Every structure is written in structure tokens, then in C-alpha cells.
Amino acid sequence: MGEEINEGNQVSQLRGADLEITFGSQFGYLDFVEEISDAITRMVGFDEDTRFWITLSIRESVVNAIQHGNQLDESKKVGIRFQSLPDRLVIYIQDEGEGFDESKIRDPLKPENLLQTGGRGVFFVRSFMDEVDWKLLPEGGMEMRIEKRLNHTKQGEKNDD
Amino acid sequence: MTIDTRNVNGITILELHGKVTIGEGSREIRETIRKLLDAGNKNILLNLGDVSYVDSSGIGELVSSYTTVTNQGGQFKLLHLTKKIRELLAITKLLTVFDSYDDEETAIGSFS
After folding, report:
1. What is the edge-to-edge ordering of all strands in the sheet holding B99-101?
2. Does A127 touch chain B (CB under 8 A)?
């Protein structure tokens, strides 16, 4: 993070590169994840608002991985991989859980669900990212894949009521 | 996260500072509100102007506070929504649920 490094060089070095981190299932790591996400999204070239929403989406995905995937078992790992491509940033979030059925998540916008305290995490990820999907891994565990296109830097376009 | 409490004309103003996220701050809001209700303080204004980060858990905590206070016959309102919080409340259709203000005097005056 030296000040002398030219940002343009960082971007060209980062394109096509991967960064991977693995950590135990503790919410205490979320701030660390947030800092890494903010740094990477800045280097890749997203504007400030978009960086915030990508980072929020990653936080929500990691919370789900810890809470629902790994059932708060601190010995189980969460992995995050950032893959920077020329036109987009792809983030993979992996846990040791058995996956979930998205159709079972209640729609937080239905009037009867508006005053529920939970159930908005995946909705936020879907709102702020361009692509979201999941798959069960052959070796066990689940991987969530979320991506944001680089030209799509204006948040809110999809969410205007 | 820290919470400062003050009282204006019988309205309790809770000033939140820092993050309202899972594992950090969510619980404090719940406990502070429970104590206020136990003490008979049912008109609560939550100042979010100095909140640096909110996630879905924090939004859930706002909803829970609203429901708890309203169920006990009180009023729960929001003051100084940040741009990000406003956007999160808008996409979750909660802006229509919460009574929110940009000005403290107007907010205080709105309590009946």
C-alpha cells in the first residue's frame, strides 16, 4: 500500500489476477474483509458508491456463509476469492455448508414480511450485484459467485421504484 | 458502536455513533430501547447521522426497535438518515414504514 505506487500500475497488475483469503467463521473478520474489498474495488476502478455496495454485498454473503452455511461453527472455514477480469470483478464466497434453497427465502418486500427482522441479506446482494449464483461443490461445501461489471458503476438503476 | 442519550421535551434522543452491523451494535440498540421502555420512556428518536455503516442485520434492528416501541404504545422515529441508509430503506420499502426527519426540531415537534 505504498503511497509511491502509481494507481495505474496497480490496476494493470490486478487485471486477471486473483486474491484469495480463508478464515474461521467469526464475525470479527468482517471488518478485515471490508477493508480488503474496499481496497480491491478501488484498485479495479469502481467509483465510491459502487465500492460501498459491492463491499456490503460481500459482507452479507460472508455473514450468510458463517451463519447459515457453517452454522456459526468457528472451526469451519469461509473462503473468499476475488477475480479481476477486464470487464468485471467476480467474487466467490465459499463455506462448508450444504447450500440452501433460494425459493424458501421469503420475499422481504411482501407486505406481510416488511416488519420481519431478518431475511434481507440475499435481497441486498441481488439488488447491488449484476450476477449472483450458487453451486454445491463436488468436494463438499457451497460456493456463491457474485459479480459486478465495470461499466455498471451507477448504483440504483435497477432499483428505482 | 456507541450510543449517547439525551432528553428533549420528554422525547428520548438516541445518538448512534459507528457501525450498526451484525455482532457490532445491533444488540446495544435493543438493550437501550428495552431499558427506556421499562423506565416508561416511550417516545424515541434515533439519530443515525453519525452511523458509518449499516448492514441487513442493522436494518433488521431498526425494524425490531420500531415494532417493540410501537407495540408498547410508543412512537419510534428516525433522524438524519445518511444517503446509504436512505437507499437501503427505500429498496426494502421501509421508508414508508418509518417516520424520518432531517431536522431535529421538526422531529421533536412531530411527537404527539
Report:
1. B2-8, B11-20, B43-54, B75-79, B99-101
2. yes
